[in-house]
Amino acid sequence: MNFCSECGHPVRVGIPDDDNRPRHICDNCHTIHYQNPKIVAGTVPVYQDKVLLCKRAIEPRVGYWTLPAGFMENEETTADAAARETWEEAQAQVDIRHLYMLIDTTAISQVYMMFLADMPEPVFGAGPESLEVGLFSEDEIPWDELAFPTIEKTLRQYFSDRRQGHFPLHQCQVTKEDRDRFFTSLHHQAVSNG
Amino acid sequence: MNFCSECGHPVRVGIPDDDNRPRHICDNCHTIHYQNPKIVAGTVPVYQDKVLLCKRAIEPRVGYWTLPAGFMENEETTADAAARETWEEAQAQVDIRHLYMLIDTTAISQVYMMFLADMPEPVFGAGPESLEVGLFSEDEIPWDELAFPTIEKTLRQYFSDRRQGHFPLHQCQVTKEDRDRFFTSLHHQAVSNG
Ligand SMILES: [Zn+2]
Ligand SMILES: [Zn+2]
């Protein structure tokens, strides 16, 4: 942020009175511009013993596999956001069960909210942000070609919980170290494959 | 938003290619400015049969009672945000148990995440955003002087669950109609009291 979105004046970074964090401050119209984490809402769409994955058609991570998920929009509920993303990316209608994974990804200030969801029918297709969409059983999951560490964490938890037969809410964190490890190991693999 | 925060050029509202919602668009540097819901993180701080409430010293709703809660900051976890707000507003150290209420307030694009929390000791005080802080049993709660409908919903759920002895995650919504009803009934009360 370089300019005030209200008045167009250049902003400076400073700690406002009665605050303890640096913010973008406009000295012309006196607006303080706060930046806050974003919610990424998505689903684990389940049909029988399989889950639905999408191969990404857009950056970041084109060509890698993900669960349907994306930024929550204003004026929708978290569950509606998760169902909407599932429709947009995988053209699948799902019945949302409940919030399943709450993952704080502090390094990029995103809060992942992944909902467990049932697919009444195995009907799906590639939306504009997907190259390909498919149902995968545990041993078919492309573990080495997943897009994000949050997705790997969610899928590993899901198949583990599936063996126990219950799916409580899990609250966890993906740290900067988790991200470095995830992307580095993929990179090494790409090099050794190339 | 009137000006591009990147380059200072005036923005226009329009639907970008490959999108289906109006956004603020900069035709100079081609940035699309997205707006997303904000997370309000807080706690239900419990000591024995009582919960800790704060009388607000700041707008909105000065003088009304709330649970400690506030906007989540970048680079912190949801649970850390809830504990931080509890410290800042009520000067209480809490042990976070788990996410308890997930409340979509679509009319104002806020997602409330209220965590159940234990107070090891009945130690608290009024932070700079509070006029007064206190522990309240169910029949002492100032039901007619609560700050927000999300707070009333959380407290009613808590005392109801307390009678059952278990506290599952509740996912619910506060609609525009809920808000209108809440604030209107308070206003009528203020008038009839005045
Ligand atoms: Zn300004
Ligand atoms: Zn611009």
From TrEMBL, chains A, B:
GO terms for molecular function: hydrolase activity. It holds the Pfam family Zn_ribbon_Nudix. Coiled coil: none annotated. It comes from the Bacteria. InterPro entries: NUDIX_hydrolase-like_dom_sf, NUDIX_hydrolase_dom, Nudix_N. Residues 36-159 form the Nudix hydrolase domain. Keywords: Hydrolase. The keyword Acyltransferase does not apply. PROSITE patterns: NUDIX (PS51462). Gene3D superfamilies: 2.20.70.10, Nucleoside Triphosphate Pyrophosphohydrolase. This is NUDIX hydrolase.
